[in-house]
Amino acid sequence: DDYKDEILYDLTRINESLDKCRACLIGISNKLNFTQNLDPRVLSSLGSEKITFAVYDAEELGDILEERAEVAFYENVLKEGVISLCAAIAAQNHGDARKALQLLRKAGEIAERTQNKIVSSDHVKKAQNELERDNHTEYIKGMPLQAQVVLLAIFLISKYAPNRTIISGDVYEVYKELSNIIPGVKSLTIRRTSDYINE
């Protein structure tokens, strides 16, 4: 992070060392509060002006998908309504064009995998379920090991005592047992474990 801040700071000051040209810094992020994590020196040098772009609506996403589908699929492979369904699902989930494209691609893969020559709305629904499952898996893989162990403790309690109300004390007890048998996991305090539960 310090290295990143140094680079940004140098870039915001670069015009002081330029004689025959001027540099302008443009940052694009889908996180509205990303500047809050910047070094105060960088923020004061930026003199930034913010422009917020509206998320894509279903119609705009449909146009993007139509354009890509012409290149990605043979003619008449997509059943009527497939693109509008992908666009509607993506529009409900923050209007992300990448997610819409991912959904259409995955629907095509499922159709191909099941030896269907036509991509239907059912393939889109299956694709949505697969992508959601994949996203959860990737998120868990990216969690710190300690957080994964806390999550495992919650999972084990819910699996072996499904009707039991899960309380943090129970999670901590199971977590402590797991940390004793999993190599490289040092026991956290109950307070730190509670932080992971909240996350």
Your description of this structure?
The chain has 199 residues and is mainly alpha-helical. The chain contains nine helices and no strands. The model has no long low-confidence stretch (mean pLDDT 88).
Describe the protein's topology:
Layout: H1 2-12, H2 40-46, H3 58-72, H4 82-92, H5 97-113, H6 121-142, H7 145-160, H8 168-181, H9 190-198
The helix content is: 55-70%
Oligomerization: single chain
End-to-end CA span: 22 Å
User: What class do helices, strands and sheet pairing give?
Assistant: mainly alpha
Q: How many E-type strands?
A: 0
Shape: flat
How many helices in DSSP terms? 9
Would you summarize the structure shown here?
The chain is mostly helical. The chain has helices at 2-12, 40-46, 58-72, 82-92, 97-113, 121-142, 145-160, 168-181, 190-198.
